[in-house]
Amino acid sequence: MLINLSNHPLTEWDERQKNEAASLYGEVIDIPFPAVLPQADPIEIDRMTDEYLQKIQNIAQNNDVVVHIMGEFTFCYALIQKLQKHNIKCVASTTERNVRFLPTGERTVDFNFIQFREYNLY
């Protein structure tokens, strides 16, 4: 099972990413990424990550889970450390970024999914 903790729910993923997730992890469950205020101090980040660790552990009770986590960097860093201490694997999605400049001067950006990459401890 893959828990998708990001600002991009499964319904917004391209077919390649959906297929890769299904092939590697089976079921995908969305948990919306929290709003992390820029004013949040380390104590607030710690409290929030404890709350999300508990949510994930509740889902993981009888399942082998991997967490796809993408979002605000300090929250992700703190939660990934906690998840890894509980032997819960965490992954990021990697993409190719394609920028096109329009004649109007505007630009469009397309992201093409490449792979899920594990957050490793080095």
Arithmetic mean pLDDT? 94
CATH secondary-structure class: Alpha Beta
Radius of gyration: 16 Å
* CATH architectural designation: 3-Layer(aba) Sandwich
Query: How many domains in all?
Result: 1
The class by helix and strand makeup works out as alpha/beta
Portion in helices: 25-40%
SS summary, helix count: 3
CATH topology: Rossmann fold
The end-to-end distance, rounded to whole angstroms, is 25 Å
Task: Report on this structure.
α2 packs across α3. The protein has 3 helices and 5 strands. A 5-stranded mixed β-sheet has the order 2-1-3-4-5.
Outline of the structure:
This protein has 122 residues and is an alpha/beta fold.
Describe this protein with a few key phrases.
122 residues; Rossmann fold; five-stranded mixed β-sheet; 3 helices
Secondary-structure map:
Layout: E1 2-6, H1 15-25, E2 28-32, H2 42-60, E3 66-69, H3 73-85, E4 89-101, E5 107-118
Parallel strand pairs: 1-2, 1-3, 3-4
Antiparallel strand pairs: 4-5
Helix pairs in contact: 2-3
